[in-house]
Model the fold of this input.
Amino acid sequence: MSKVLVLNGPNLNLLGQREPEVYGATTLQDLENRLTSGAPTGMNLEFYQSNHEGEMIDRIHQLMDQPVDGIVINPGAWTHTSVAIRDALSTVTAPFVEVHISNVHAREAFRHHSYVSDIALAVIVGCGIQGYTFALETLDQHIQH
Ligand code: DQA
Done:
C-alpha cells in the first residue's frame, strides 16, 4: 500500500461556496470523499486543510517522523507568497504534485508565480477538481517506478 497526504491551504475549506464560478460547486468534503472512493488501487489517502500557515508547516514537518510516499498540495494563496511553505516541502523527501483548480496563468499577474513549482514533481492547473485525481495518478505512476 502507498500512503498519500492531500493538503489544502487557505480558503479551500470554503470550496463550493467560495467564488463557485472560479472554483466550482463541489465542497471540500465531497472532493475528499470522491478522491477516497476513486483513489488508485493500493493507495491510502489522508487529508489536511488549514487556513494557518504555521499549522500547515507543522503538518508537513510531521512527515519527517511519519513519512508518506507522496503529497498532493493546493497551497492556495501561499503558492504566490510563501517561502516558508516551500522550505517545509523541501525538507521532506516525499515527492509532491502542486494542484490549482483554476488556471492561475489566465488570472491576475500575482498568481503567475509559484514558490513551489520548480521543486514539484508535477504541476496541474486549470483542470478543476479533476486536477486532484490527475495528481494522484501521477504520484501512483511515480511511486510504482
Ligand atoms: C488556487 C489559486 C490561487 O491563486 C488562489 O489563491 C487559491 C486557489 C486554485 O486552486 O486555483 O486559493 O490555488
In short: The radius of gyration is 14 Å. The longest strand covers residues 2-8.
